[in-house]
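Re-run with default settings, no changes from the original entry. Doing this only to confirm the output is reproducible before filing.
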Amino acid sequence: MVEEKTTEDKKIVKLPNPVTVKKFAEVLELPVSNVITELMKNGIMATINEEIDFETASIIAEDLGFEAKEDMEVHEGEAITLERLIDICKKEQDSKEKLSPRPPIVTILGHVDHGKTTLLDTIRKGNVASQEVGGITQHISAYQVKKKGKLVTFIDTPGHEAFSAMRERGVSIADVAILVVAADDGVRPQTKEVITYLKEKKIPTIVAINKIDKPEANPQRVKQELAEHEITVEEWGGDVIANEISAKSNIGIDDLLDSILLVSEVLELKADEKREGLGVVLESNLDPKKGPVSTVLVKTGTFKVGHDIVTGTAFGRIKRMENFLGKQIDFAGPSTPVVIMGLDKTSRANDVVQVAGKKAFSKIKKGEPFGLSGKSAIKSKKDLLKNIDDEHIKKLYIIVKADVQGSLEAIDQILSTIKSEEVAWEYVNVGVGNITESDVKLAADSGAMIVGFSVTATTVAKRLAEKEGVTVKIFNVIYELVEEIKSSMADLLPPEIVRTDLGRLKVLAIFKHGKKDMIVGGRVIDGVAVKKALVEVKREKEIIGKGEVSNLQQNKKPADEVKAGNECGITFEGKVKIEEGDIFQFYEEKEERRKL
């Protein structure tokens, strides 16, 4: 790691970014205590296993007589996080080396129902929108189109509020963002969220004002609202290209593609296609025939059939690769979306896929995570358990099975927002794939319910669930699944007692004193007196006791209720001794099921 040549008597060292204090000291060939002391002099308190960024490390290295350069190589056995991969790609882009040009990666963002998927559908002449349940894109997908002989890679991300983490992932790996805003609806909550993220990450942005062919369309109002959120279009003196389009009617789409190519040309996108492949898992699922299948976006380098690869805790050899059209391919270069088969298990969205060596395989076989991004929402069963210790809180135990990892991530994100001081949910297990008999056995042993999203239950699992009395429910819309879990949690709550006041009566006479009951006469002064109603007895405005109306008569005839202004006889059951002048408050109580 330490190079022998010197510059002005300073050794040149290559440092990864970030680097642990221990590794930093090893590269400098100095005692760890010396490095920690120098860090403390610069106001940085860091322990031996904590990481520091390259900028900080380079300053400390210079103070210690070294010149630091960032090490961009991926070393054997090194785990690559998404953040590290993005940094590697950025350094490649900024380098002066003559690297290969690559297609732009474009993400389409915006509020739900503003036409993002319809736009993609129009661009690639496919038909995704009609296949979506509830009209919401519920997975992340990637496609390529060709314009003027040049390829453009598109990433489709969900628009619903439940999928903010997936949208952020789409932005983080994109070169250009298309912000879709409906001309008849304007800037909405998810639009604002996206704008904030785009500004924070400084992603080059093109605005697509959609649905301009609608009678109520008002593009100028949209531009005004965007300007209020610091997105100023060229027409208004800003630097953001805006295209007025109708995805449904195929208006302005060619101009939008031209804008993408223009922005991409300015960016001069490039990557090192000669290095070993590094990519990001966009999605993964368990195919009954093909086994674990991962959709991967190649960020740099090249993947080839036969490469040994690792990602998170999954590893294997690439047995087959397909492009987004399902056509088999032998290699995939930078900016290419590719479906990879050959891993031993489903990979996790956001994990980095990399060509592996012996050290990487050694780590995986020992059960050590390799290249796992710290931002994966769905982790192991141990990580997922809520560990709620309060014995007074009732728990709903659930097993969640979904079609792909992204669905699990979205479900987990929404479930985490459910708050209650009386009841909580807890995972027993989560997984990708259909519901099997092992899931049912686990549910039977743990008292859990099984919920599935866009999966089926095997015939054996259905039979076993019926025999064991295990609840299995399957949904095609995430919010319906979440509502079912909330409803099941609410069933664990004690019912709410709702009181309804019915009327009042003034006691005018006492006819009989019994051990447990009294017969009294009185006049209903408001509302109604009702047979079987509960009674509060008031004397001089103070409640002195309670009871129940066991019998009610009007004009010496049985009655179910007596209205205001009429006199009646009442058999009162209760311990309190009634006196003339007391007031009866009639009411009823009903148990109502509570909601979260």
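The chain has five domains: 2-71, 103-268, 280-365, 381-491, 496-592. The longest helix spans residues 253-267.
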